[in-house]
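thought: user wants a sequence for this fold. calling inverse folding tool.
action: design(structure=
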């Protein structure tokens, strides 16, 4: 790349004011072409190479999904971003399926966020082009090695090192692709949470604990990833539920209403099934209401027939429902919630998973609410550490008796992100009449 190189971006929107605003944001760093007519944009894309296409979803005559699908047909290597002023899940699914979108941005956008998303997309296109070139170079270098292997001279060693570096770069590119997948899942989860009127952070908290429980059960890295993604989306299908069921206490539901509630698992799995590489994730969603002893929903699977991710999700999901009051209308404390899970072990839940989850929280004293077990996102400045907090390698990060500060929380969040790790923090809270703290317990 030279200093004068500017990546090429096409913006498509039937509102001229929107196009002018986008041009103002990106004109310094990119070569911008705008269209308020989708047909003209498609014609342009059939003849000109670009790095990125950003299209509005709702336009007269031709939708953004059609524009992005055409861009995918003419230029499969460019990235595609959907821009929309409304959260229409069906349209989003259509755009993912037809146009293979890289990201989804809602109107009105945040300037810094849209800059970040666009920059990430353009960098990915350039990196993929470099990876193609590297792959060709790698093939040539392998051929050279076959010719030189009999001599075992220094040139062979140099070429081997070059291949190793190339493979490292390819591995880095694969890591970026996994990150993009997580971003798409997060996008869908945010939209679904907004539509069902709940908090995205609740889904993240459950996902973190499912992953932590999977680590305790010594599951492999791929399985842990699928469990985390599924737990992040475990209530995705609720976007299809009647509004009167969304906030109803489950113990007060009729059998017919419970059946409708459980149907959300199938709807969520159906949505995720549009992404073929996420089959394991959709299976976890589909079977999250199966019972360990059988007679569950939808296929009456039992025991190990139920995916391990679905069994883990059932325990963590219902634990949170007990402490939030969603199951019975009464908010259970930590110990009572665990006892409720144990009472249904080997009937509804996998006993081994219930016991491992309890072991994960074993230092909470029976019959006492003096300690609360929290994940990093639940910490607040002023809380007191009840037990030493450990790094992933077992070394002590924070000792018992220290006070939580905003700086400490930021350090812990940064460490979790860098090391793909989840802290489990025990907080000491003195007895108070206000029950609000109890509501925050895991």
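)
observation: tool returned 442 residues.
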């Amino acid at each position: 790349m030279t200093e004068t190189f500017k990546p090429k971006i096409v913006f498509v929107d039937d509102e001229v004011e929107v196009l002018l605003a986008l041009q103002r944001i990106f004109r310094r760093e990119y070569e911008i072409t705008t269209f308020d007519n989708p047909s003209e944009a498609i014609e342009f894309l059939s003849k000109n190479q670009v790095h990125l296409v950003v299209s509005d979803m709702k336009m007269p005559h031709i939708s953004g999904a059609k524009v992005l699908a055409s861009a995918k047909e003419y230029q499969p290597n460019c990235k595609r971003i959907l821009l929309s002023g409304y959260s229409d899940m069906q349209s989003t699914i259509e755009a993912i399926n037809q146009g293979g979108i890289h990201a989804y941005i809602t109107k009105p956008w945040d300037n810094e966020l849209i800059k970040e998303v666009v920059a990430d997309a353009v960098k990915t296109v350039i990196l993929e082009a470099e990876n193609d070139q590297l792959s060709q170079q790698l093939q040539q270098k392998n051929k050279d090695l076959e010719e030189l292997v009999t001599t075992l001279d220094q040139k062979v060693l140099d070429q081997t090192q070059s291949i190793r570096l190339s493979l490292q770069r390819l591995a880095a590119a694969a890591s970026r692709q996994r990150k993009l997948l997580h971003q798409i899942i997060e996008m869908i989860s945010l939209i679904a949470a907004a539509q069902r009127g709940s908090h995205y952070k609740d889904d993240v908290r459950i996902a973190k604990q499912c992953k932590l429980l999977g680590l305790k059960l010594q599951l492999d890295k791929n399985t842990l990833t699928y469990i985390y993604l599924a737990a992040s989306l475990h209530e995705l299908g609720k976007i299809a539920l009647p509004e009167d069921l969304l906030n109803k206490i489950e113990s007060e539901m009729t059998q017919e209403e419970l059946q409708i509630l459980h149907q959300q698992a199938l709807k969520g799995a159906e949505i995720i099934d549009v992404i073929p590489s996420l089959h394991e994730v959709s299976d976890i969603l589909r079977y999250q209401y199966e019972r360990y002893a059988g007679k569950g929903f939808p296929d009456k699977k039992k025991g190990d027939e139920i995916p391990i991710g679905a069994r883990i999700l059932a325990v963590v999901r219902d634990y949170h429902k007990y402490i939030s009051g969603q199951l019975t209308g009464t908010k259970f404390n930590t110990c009572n919630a665990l006892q409720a899970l144990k009472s249904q072990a080997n009937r509804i839940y996998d006993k081994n998973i219930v016991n491992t989850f309890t072991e994960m929280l074993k230092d909470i004293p029976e019959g006492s609410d003096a300690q609360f077990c929290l994940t990093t996102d639940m910490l607040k400045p002023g809380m007191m550490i009840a037990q030493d907090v450990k790094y992933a390698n077992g070394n002590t990060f924070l000792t018992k008796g220290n006070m939580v500060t905003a700086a400490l929380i930021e350090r812990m969040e940064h460490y979790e992100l860098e090391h793909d790790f989840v802290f489990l923090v025990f907080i000491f809270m003195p007895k108070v009449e206000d029950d609000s703290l109890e509501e925050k317990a895991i």
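thought: summarizing for user.
answer: Here is the designed sequence. The first strand starts at residue 8 and ends at 12.
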